[in-house]
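Let us practice reading a record.
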Amino acid sequence: MSAFSNVERPAVFPVCLCLDVSYSMAGAPMSAVNLALPEIKKAIEDDPSTGEIARLAVVTFSDRSDCVLPLTDIAYADMPTLAPQGGTNFAAGLRTAGEALRDGIKGLGKGSAYHQPVVFFISDGEHNAHEDWTHARAALTAKEDKYGAQIVSFGFGQANREAIQRVSTGFAFFTDESDPAAAVREILHVVVRSIRTTSSSFSSGTGGALSVPHDGTRLTQLPLDQRLVG
């Protein structure tokens, strides 16, 4: 899905990092996230074709959620420093990711063109709130909504594989890496590669599509949940 405009500028690729910051992320995993965020900024800035079209938002979730970086041109982004807090509520994260993308795309200006948004959802735990997170997922990914997003999900540590699989709209991954900091680094490296290769495909003039290269990693791709197809 793309929106079209007569404005002579490339369509924007809206991306949202949706990061678990519950207490289980304390210590090495959170430190790895905070070290990786500036590296993500630099990797995108160093690739002009990606920097031209990619726009990044960062949403955190625990038992609550926050948009800690609104959708922005990465060149002008001050990457946040995150801290662990609370339990794990997938619904809160997915809901705020949708709000961040919707508000950010609206902020591009009337008639601005954009590709279908993508949410990179990363968790080391299991949803433990009372509300049903699948409703927030359905709203975020609704095909009839012009802001409807794709979700690429990543799980590690104590994350529930089935839940990580069900969060995704097509690409879901799990790593059995025993070092949680190494798992975070590897996942975020794949996220950067995905943003760059997808941006490149959009810039190629052939239409483009979401690409999630994970060759050479310890990430295992999980099968698509057929209950959520269509």
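A brief commentary: The first helix runs from residue 28 to 45.
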